[in-house]
């Protein structure tokens, strides 16, 4: 009698180990898949002349960009024109000397936005997400989180022109 109970307990224990192992393997496989799906390609933020420089991108900016992408349905991270810039590259593109794009800050992006409808959508949703510095060009939207600069401002390009949309006015 004791022997038959022993076999039952061994059988139940073996079954529990098999089921538990299968559940653990599935969990680990799903975790790996989720991590791969949510991984960020930081090279989209690289200065054009320094590979790997985009890893410094401000994490609060990155989180807001991800939310902007979700809210708008626009592939924001696949449409980054300019983000982190070296001093050399910043001068080459005509950036201001204290640009939020500079490697020392890593707090700005320019998002390619080829139509007025896309620019307006990005600007309005960026405003709704708490962006307080928004530049609007003919083919892009600049967003930054540089708190050392004036806040609740929008501007157009070239510098000094009014933006086609200003959520702060």
From TrEMBL:
Peptidase M15A C-terminal domain segment(s): 59-144
GO MF annotations in UniProt: carboxypeptidase activity
Source species, domain of life: Bacteria
Record-annotated membrane-spanning stretches: 6-29
SUPFAM superfamilies on file: Hedgehog/DD-peptidase
Keyword Hydrolase: yes
Protease is among the record's keywords: yes
Keywords tagged on the record: Carboxypeptidase, Hydrolase, Membrane, Protease, Transmembrane, Transmembrane helix
Protein name: D-Ala-D-Ala carboxypeptidase family metallohydrolase
Organism: Dokdonia ponticola
